[in-house]
């Protein structure tokens, strides 16, 4: 474990609980500034592998959430967007106690698909880069209106 625990940067808000698998990353934070959306967390024991660094599965989950949320933000709609593909290059390690954060580097929207790519970084540099593809169904069957916690996420989207 790192000797010090880094702090959550200014402007980040704790994600609500009740978001399904996303809850595995708690405490996880989100910041929305205009159309710049970032997610982050302080690597804790529940995020770490036996080496004491952030587990690749936790990094992929964070990337998937960030990429899908960036695509939904670009669409102006919070709705189910199943992941078709997610690739990740693991570049560096993040130790327990370190803050890691996502940055979206681009979103491309097509009629039924969205493409998003970005990085996860820490104070020590790039931890991973990701590319993701999402399917945007042309029906209301995947709306998230009934999911607990979605109202808070919609409020964050509408507030800015």
TrEMBL record:
Pfam families: 4HBT. InterPro entries: HotDog_dom_sf, Thioestr_dom. Residues 52-122 form the Thioesterase domain. Signal peptide: none annotated. One of its GO terms (molecular function) is thiolester hydrolase activity. This is PaaI family thioesterase. It comes from Halioglobus japonicus.
